[in-house]
UniProtKB/TrEMBL annotation:
InterPro entries: Antitoxin_Phd/YefM, phD/YefM_antitoxin, YefM-like_sf
Role of this protein: Antitoxin component of a type II toxin-antitoxin (TA) system.
Protein's recorded name: Antitoxin
Superkingdom: Bacteria
Lineage: Bacteria, Pseudomonadati, Pseudomonadota, Gammaproteobacteria, Thiotrichales
Gene3D superfamilies tied to this protein: 6.10.250.330, YefM-like domain
Similarity comment text for this entry: Belongs to the phD/YefM antitoxin family.
Length: 85
C-alpha cells in the first residue's frame, strides 16, 4: 500500500494510477482538511465487491468454511484441467 499526499497525487496522477493497476494495490491519498481517499484498480475493486457479495450470505459463508476445513484436513482430490478447444 502506498500513501501519498493530495498534492503529490495530483502532480503525478498517471504514475499513481499506473501503480495501482500494475501492482494490484491501493494508494491512500491524504488530505489536510478532509477525509483521506483510496485509489485502486477496477479489477481489485470488483474482486472486493464480489467477496463482499459472497460473504453476505450465511449459507455461502458456511459452505466456504466447510470447503476450507475439507482442504486443510486433506479431504480433497486434485484434478487436472480439461483442455477445451
Amino acid at each position: 500500500m502506498q500513501v501519498v499526499s493530495y498534492t503529490d497525487a495530483r502532480n503525478s496522477l498517471k504514475s499513481v494510477l499506473d501503480s495501482v493497476v500494475d501492482n494490484v494495490d491501493v494508494t491512500i491519498i491524504t488530505r489536510r482538511d478532509a477525509d483521506n481517499a483510496v485509489v485502486m484498480s477496477q479489477d481489485y475493486f470488483n474482486s472486493l465487491m464480489e467477496t463482499v457479495h459472497l460473504l453476505k450470505s450465511p449459507a455461502n459463508v458456511a459452505h466456504l468454511k466447510e470447503s476450507i476445513a475439507q482442504y486443510r484436513s486433506g479431504k480433497t482430490i486434485p484434478k487436472g484441467l480439461i483442455d477445451e478447444d
